[in-house]
Amino acid sequence: YVFKENRFSYEYTAKLVKRLCRNQSVKVLVADDSVVSRKFIRSLLEQHLFQVIEADDGVSALETLNDNPDIKLLITDYNMPRLDGFGLIIKVREQLSREELAIIGLSSDSDESLSARFIKNGANDFLQKPFVHEEFHCRVLTTLDALDMVTKLWEQANLDYLTNVYNRRYFFNLYEDKLTNIALKNSSLSLALLDIDYFKKINDNYGHDVGDEVLIEFARRLQQSFSQHFTVARIGGEEFVVGFKGLNVEKAYTLLDSFRMQLELTPIATSKGLLNITVSTGVTEFTLDENVDALLNRADIGLYQAKQNGRNLVCI
Ligand code: GH3
Ligand code: MG
Ligand code: MG
Ligand code: MG
Question: Using CA atoms, how far apart are residues 56 and 70, in angstroms rounded to an integer?
Fold first, then answer.
């Protein structure tokens, strides 16, 4: 009743609810050698619905992080046996950036330089024990909000707005200078360029919105067929690439040809009814010391052949 009359309260409540929903899926690791301190922090975090995991020193914290790559926040004490808070942070930051895992340092030590040293070593924030509950919550929430913001920005920069698969920028960044490394590490690398056949006709006959619906569903099927192991990206209007790490061109061809057939046999449901589409594909394999443009050019030659030979084909 009060919420209805007070706009501020209503918005505040809505924000709070949204946060609590988010928190439910956030795993937090609390590293502290004091059981009392750990249980206290756990209870504060659980009030806000976080999933809490505990570690009693730096070494077991590292092990827990390795076993739980989805931990988003580490709250760590400074003085701990075996490996202290600084040692822990330095080790963690060799693997994970501030954006991948947030760290908040904690200490009851009176040394005033601790907070600066924590942050210089890679912590996102620091809290002096004992602290007021409200400050603890503010720091945790602000740190996680910043992480969410970075994730959102990353997605806006790297995902295609329409189809939600990776975009052109992501694809070229991924493969620009690292092709040789990727190919050697995975023993081979193949690349496919896919272009929907007569796509312009769909726009002309049914409108641009239906064209968009087709693109979204086409991308979803690509993602569903390939994304578990491979990289799917939209690099042009109705042009997509798939990077096949670890597959030679024959194996990639087999997967692509079954995708092609499946697409031909399964019409796409749109707001203007079921539409049949087909795709033409060029696929090629990386040879040492070439760059992504050369690789893509060769895939494009295959694609051109597929179009020339009547479309709805995969060509090497
Ligand atoms: P082909 O079989 O030779 O590939 O013929 P096509 O009609 O598919 O090829 P063309 O390159 O002539 O046309 C591609 C069309 O894709 C033209 C463009 O308007 C359309 N297009 C590009 N981006 C989008 C988009 O985001 N949404 C929609 N609806 N259409 C798009
Ligand atoms: Mg301690
Ligand atoms: Mg095209
Ligand atoms: Mg086309």
Answer: 19
